[in-house]
Design brief:
There is one protein chain. The protein has about 130 residues and is an all-alpha fold. It contains 3 helices and no strands. The longest helix is centred in the middle third of the chain and has 33 residues. About 0% of the residues are buried. The model has no long low-confidence stretch (mean pLDDT about 75).
Length: about 130
Amino acid sequence: MQTVVILIHLMIVLAMVGLILIQKSEGGGLGMGGGGGGFLSSRGTANVLTRTTAILAAIFFATSLILSILASYERKPRSMLDGGGAPSAPAVPGVPAVPGAGGGVLNQLGGGTPQQPAPAAPAAPSGPQVPRQ
């Protein structure tokens, strides 16, 4: 159902772009000109294109609302603050989750792993020392 509405939505978008591009602008632009009177005069064409654009815009808004309603059916409301304990899967592959770290939002965003201290500078060799002269 959602795919059909998306396809209709895209066709309406393409039709609107085409209609807007062929309309006459203030300076003449890409509009269809022509002399004489009647239905397809420059004034009659402008009225038809303006009405058609307004109708397509209304249909565009309707399909946008339908798409947002269809998308909301697939969402399940849940609270961001209720973590319910530690995350079920580790945030980083190969790094185990820290037990007792809690399931708060900040712990989940941080990956739940403790920060490791930076390695210390290597110690001096512990072999026999020769006094310097």
